[in-house]
Design brief:
seven-stranded mixed sheet, 10 helices, 60s Ribosomal Protein L30, Chain: A, Phosphoribosyl-aminoimidazole Synthetase, Chain A, domain 2, 334 residues, globular, homodimer, 13 strands
């Protein structure tokens, strides 16, 4: 059973309607009606040591920040703003008090930066390694909520930033190859990702996008989620995302940069789809916020996600199905 | 640094006020204003394999139930009702699909029983053992919220059920001594605790209590939390709680039943304080709901929690300070 299978099983067993639940399982956040105009957004994510991070090279303050950031990114993906943070922290016996102080400082700093406050949680002992679960409650006007299910044939597909950087950074950290300052930004993309809160909020507020989510499992998988829920397909060309220093790092480590771009996880950039007539407004907004955005393809009325690659004859492109080829915590044997 | 120290550190670093946050860190739930009359309650708890449970003898459906129940118990402790459930599930590679199906069935059943629905969450890989974090959002009228900080000198101290049963049950499960049907209820208290949702809701609705919390770390520690936050003290006599089959199990395992009663954790019973004039109403309500309640002591204007024990001369009682002598995930060396 892979990750989607687990989520489908849980969803099928517990499916139930509630008048105030506007969106349940299946999007970046649950959406709960607060009043006639506003909704709460709720998301929860767990970071597990030796799966998501390694204390040997993850500075504790950056881990504290990241635990907040990855959840704030889910709030951003709907177009909302974060308000309350809840932390469940698992610590091994004999943990280092200095480590905890630094972790807490990073978490507090991220809360302040994103305008939210720690409102509760619990601490437990962990038999091995640190466990960090954070839940964030956000808020936004209900009519501005951007779901995964709104993509329409003809939409342009956009991404913020340069996906693949976090996967490259993780590989550099793993191999201890972080000495070259040219690659510092890649390591930082893994250690301390920046949620695109302001860009997402303005895209939603100005009704510029039809669908949006954040990139946690890789572009190929996350865009496939948008396509499945919107009952559309997508064709993308990753060429525009091969931005230095990613190709240089790929060369150094003998990796395929497109693999990082399409299947690398945990970038916490945004992927969104928008009517072509909004392209100029999107470019203008992103420029004002100094966030790079790249138009990487289009939505059509097929199914799945295909990547356009140049044919060896050099005269035309071929399309390869890459749906759900990103990160899966529970990959099935092929 | 012990468990209270960790929570104080996190609280001090992130302390911030928010207009809608009526109660932050330090009670069973955070309380968030929903509208002029209603509030949301938010709680989150993690169950870690080999710390909180053992898959070798914890049936997966009961574990699924318990993950919901322990959080519903926090909602109950404020006087609220649960509405939305969020699950973050960590599973080891190669987990058993049948185990997951049974776990999910138990979780779904508990959600139905308590009238709440699974609204979101995530799944991650765990390097070793199952990790279950559940967050629950509940709701209630703001003016009925019962905090830990409301106890007043002169209040009677009450507990529901018979604390110590879960600790005894855990010990029986650990030792594989669950064959005797006389002890089945003790094992069940650990494997499948029942939150006192209805009793707590009616106590709050009828304004019968000044303070309330649920028993997760043991009576001595949890009542000490009420005393600290209410700036009062308490004297209790555990004799009224020595109820069969607890003393028999203690005899079998050569344990002190009072140790289980005062320091055993995870009973998810209620401890509450109430003006003496409400005693008859409390007894009457509990009888109608068929929940045992026992008056175990009184609140005074001292500090800490003391247990009354008979003096060896048989003529008078001595009081022993037992504050915070319950379960601590991070005990400090004495």
């Amino acid at each position: 059973m892979n990750e989607r299978g687990i989520i489908e099983l849980l969803g099928s067993m517990t499916a139930a309607a509630a008048p105030d639940l506007l969106q349940g399982i299946g999007d970046d956040c649950a959406v709960i009606r607060k009043n006639s105009r506003q909704s709460w957004l709720v998301t929860m994510d767990t970071l597990v040591e030796s799966v998501h991070f390694d204390r040997n090279w993850h500075p504790p303050d950056k881990l504290g920040r990241k635990a907040v950031s990855v959840n704030v990114s889910d709030i951003a993906a709907m177009g909302g703003i974060p308000v309350f943070v809840f932390l469940s922290l698992g610590l091994p016996a004999g943990f280092d008090a200095g480590w905890l102080t630094s972790f807490s400082r990073g978490l507090a700093e991220a809360c302040r930066e994103f305008g939210c406050i720690l409102a509760g949680g619990d601490t437990v002992r962990s038999p091995a390694g640190v466990l960090v679960t954070v839940a964030v409650i956000g808020e936004m006007p209900t009519r501005q909520v951007v779901l995964r299910s709104g993509a329409k044939a003809g939409d342009a597909v956009w991404v913020s930033g340069y996906p693949g950087r976090a996967a490259a950074g993780l590989e550099l950290c793993r191999l201890g190859r972080t000495e070259d300052p040219a690659f510092a930004g890649l390591a930082e993309a893994h250690l301390n990702p920046q949620p695109r809160l302001e860009l997402a909020r303005r895209l939603a507020e100005n009704r510029l996008v039809h669908s949006m989510m954040d990139l946690s499992d890789g572009l190929a998988t996350d865009l496939a989620h948008i396509c499945t829920r919107s009952k559309v397909g997508a064709v993308i060309d990753p060429a525009g995302l091969r931005m230095d220093p990613l190709p240089a790092a790929a060369g150094l480590l003998d990796k395929d940069p497109d693999q990082w771009i399409l299947s690398g996880g945990e970038d916490f950039e945004l992927v969104f789809t928008a009517p072509a007539r909004h392209s100029a407004a999107i470019v203008d907004l992103a420029a004002r916020l100094e966030v790079p955005v790249t138009r990487i393809g289009r939505i059509d009325d097929s199914q799945g996600v295909r990547a356009a690659r140049p044919h060896p004859d050099g005269n035309h492109a071929v399309e390869i199905d890459i749906s759900f080829s990103g990160y899966d915590h529970f990959p099935e044997p092929r």
